[in-house]
Design goal:
Length: 100
């Protein structure tokens, strides 16, 4: 099992929306992916509750059977749509893939 973890720090305002609006929009978009991508085993999207400036704003926790499935996920059209939008509204991104 591969755990895929991504964290983002969002811009205060981007694409006509506030940070909070973009966080909720992206969360909703991501949470719809398991119904569209059958090899995505599980997905959780959580928003940060700590107001400390150095903290990231959101974290994605997902599971795949293999690293190959993670790579397939990255190229999936539904994921690419969301990823393209997130690139416009984020300031920073960090990620890690690990085996469990």
């Amino acid at each position: 099992m591969i755990k895929h973890v991504v964290m983002w720090k969002f811009k205060p305002f981007a694409e006509g929306r506030t940070k909070e609006e973009n966080l909720l929009l992206v969360k909703s978009m991501l949470e719809a992916l398991p119904e569209k991508i059958d090899f995505l085993r599980s997905m959780q999207v959580n928003l940060n509750v700590n107001p400390k400036e150095s903290m990231f704003d959101a974290v994605l926790l997902s599971e795949f059977d293999s690293l190959e499935d993670v790579l397939r996920y990255r190229e999936h059209p539904e994921h690419k749509k969301i990823s393209s939008y997130v690139a416009l509204v984020r300031e920073a991104r960090a990620s890690v893939d690990y085996e469990e």
